[in-house]
Design goal:
- By secondary structure, the chain is of the alpha+beta class.
- Strands 1-2-3-4-5-14-6-11-10-9-8-7 form a 12-stranded mixed sheet, sandwiched between helices.
- The longest helix is centred in the middle third of the chain and has 15 residues.
Length: 301
């Protein structure tokens, strides 16, 4: 096997499909300015056949996969063997000795290839951490309430009595304003601007969900349709002053029901940790909804 550096055009000529938009040419070109430079690599076998491909971005002196996404993708046309994945891992380390950081998705995005890639990268990494990632299994419960812990069920019932209304196709600006207010209230950073989200909508399907009480917008969710199996919550949250009505418990139900009805299998609710250190309160909330815990690993050398 030989790892070659090629152009982005050549990479996507060999690998025109990706598991999610995060691996696509359109998404990575949209976000190219967030890296100092981009580098495309392809692993070829002894007959010159393309086996695996990588597009990484340079940031802070090292190569990153992803350079602007929740996780990165290794590209392929058909599933490759564990041995080929190990060849890629060793070749990347030998080719990029100055340093590289790779974050891969939870296994439910690609149950065959992701475990092989993670095992291979774990051999060459000098440092690793695993972020706590929660997802709601839409096919495991016939009804959202069936997966709730007792306390979460009480909170959900309280929210149902409050008189909220839910809109599955709300005005994007209203949805984003709720998220902005939530992050300001809780002191969390808001990485994506409204304009950036709207630009991303051109390359990844985005849904805008809103929970209101009378004339007040109380909670919202921004969700990507990453493929026909998985929808991913990018942002969700409520505004200050409505904690007693427990809007998030009802919002979770409405969003989950929406994607179950559309035939999705998994609602990826996302990480509840920073560099592998969990926010235990957030983890407890997601587990109380019936979510599954998986891990999103980062490999570093």
């Amino acid at each position: 096997m030989e790892l070659q550096q090629i152009t982005i055009e050549e990479l996507y000529s060999e690998f025109p499909q990706s598991v999610t938009p995060y691996g696509s040419e359109a998404f990575n070109r949209l976000n190219a300015a967030k890296a100092d430079s981009l580098a495309a690599y392809i692993l070829r076998d002894s007959k010159g056949k393309a086996r695996l491909g990588v597009l990484a971005g340079e940031r802070d002196g090292s190569m990153r996969l992803p350079f602007s996404a929740p996780f990165g993708e290794v590209l392929y046309r058909r599933p490759q063997t564990l041995e080929t994945c190990m060849d890629l891992a060793h070749a990347l380390k030998n080719t990029i000795p100055a340093g590289m950081q790779l974050t891969l998705a939870p296994d439910f995005y690609d149950p065959l290839m992701l475990p092989r890639l993670k095992g291979a990268l774990g051999i060459v990494a000098t440092e690793m951490y695993h972020d706590y990632n929660y997802s709601y299994p839409l096919t495991s419960y016939s009804d959202f309430v069936a997966g709730l812990a007792p306390a979460a069920r009480n909170h959900y019932n309280r929210a149902c009595r409050a008189g909220f209304s839910f809109t599955a196709d709300a005005a994007p600006a209203r949805v984003y304003e709720v998220i902005r207010r939530n992050r300001a209230w809780r002191g969390y950073p808001l990485a994506m601007s409204f304009d950036a989200l709207c630009e991303t909508a051109a390359v990844a399907g985005i849904d805008w969900h809103l929970l209101s009480l009378g004339d007040a917008d109380v909670a919202s969710a921004v969700v990507y349709r990453l493929n026909r199996h998985v929808a991913q919550v990018i942002y969700w949250g409520d505004v200050e002053g409505y904690g007693g009505e427990r809007p998030m418990n009802l919002l979770a139900r409405r969003v989950a029901d929406h994607y179950r009805a559309l035939g999705f299998e998994t609602l990826d609710i996302g990480p509840s940790s920073v560099r592998g250190v969990p926010d235990t309160g957030l983890c407890t909330f997601k587990e109380s909804l019936g979510c599954d815990l998986t891990f999103k690993p980062t490999f570093i050398w």
